[in-house]
Amino acid sequence: MTATLNEQMDVIRKGTVEIIPEEELIRKLEKSIKTKIPLNIKLGCDPSRPDLHIGHSVVLNKLREFQDFGHQAILIIGDFTGMVGDPTGKKKARPQLTFEETRENGKSYFEQATRILDKGKTKIVYNSEWLAKLDMHNIIEILSKFTIQRILERDDFTNRLRDQQEIASHEILYPIMQGYDSYAIKADVELGGTDQRFNNLMGRDMQKRFGQEPQVVLLMPLLEGTDGSEKMSKSLNNYIGITDAPKDIFGKTMSIPDVLIYKYFELATRLTPKELLNVKNELEEPSNNPRNAKRKLGYELVKLYYDEDTAKSAIEEFDRIFIKKEIPDEIEEFKLKDDSIKIIDLLALTKLADSKGIARRLIEQGGVSIDGEKVEDINYIVDFKSEIILKVGKRKFLKIIK
Questions:
Q1: What is the CATH number of domain 246-323?
Q2: pLDDT over threshold 90, residue 8
Q3: What's this model's pTM, rounded to 2 decimal places?
């Protein structure tokens, strides 16, 4: 570990909402530097979601920064807690997953997370390794250290009680089990989003009550999706997936509102504080077009999840399609048997539209073209004699062949 305390704290503070308490983190880092013993940095992973997007990358990037300073990254896959389900933000109990489902999702999580983390320096553990071994005597001992009033301080539970919504008994165990994870691995620092504040602080409480030095809690902001309003979510279709194709990562990045450009740079890339300051200065210069900053952002994201050459290709392809109005080099092909077909039927057949109703709306909105010519008639018949290029929206191309 060659970085000084100030160098580490400058990077750790970047994008962070809250460090609880910061003075304890400073003491831990000072001791780590002096003894050359790395800190245990914990990140608990919810195995109910096997697909990660860059909203999840906010804490993963912070964990990677700790790794780069020589600290030990520990990913805890909640295969046991996943059978309960995190009640955070939920108005009712989550559907319970089977142990096999949590394990499979956890494996997928690790494979995706190590696109950001250093795989060789990341320790992965499953909390069933210790939680499944607890007997009733252990559970009674743990529960005796926490009051029902303390658990019900959670906003989620308070709101459900107010609204006369049921709280299942097993849900109360979730924050206690997550807190026990911190005790089991002797965590020095736990990372989480701001919505995990209660759960993460339970780890501090658990360690204190069992005579262990308490962890520091480091909270990161939640990232808005490409719509600029709601939290990034696959269900809201406002996400940029870690495993998305490079052109999709780049294209979706170009669609974010201008007000989010700097926040995405700060939370979703690995730029240094000095590089971020340059980005901020460029964005504040009125003569600069925000599109140029988005192009750089898209480049940084593709480079992060793929490589530099792929990022350069993504910029070139985007410029070809959207600036030079050219067709991309590689287009998926679809073989058509008919000599003629209604445009609505063609869109539905090729899955460029999920239904004929959606196909109709796409045409009426001017989002469909053939060989560069916009199709405006919903009853248009495609007379198919040679290959054509069908375009839907801004980014979907399909080559129709015989």
A1: 1.10.240.10
A2: yes
A3: 0.75
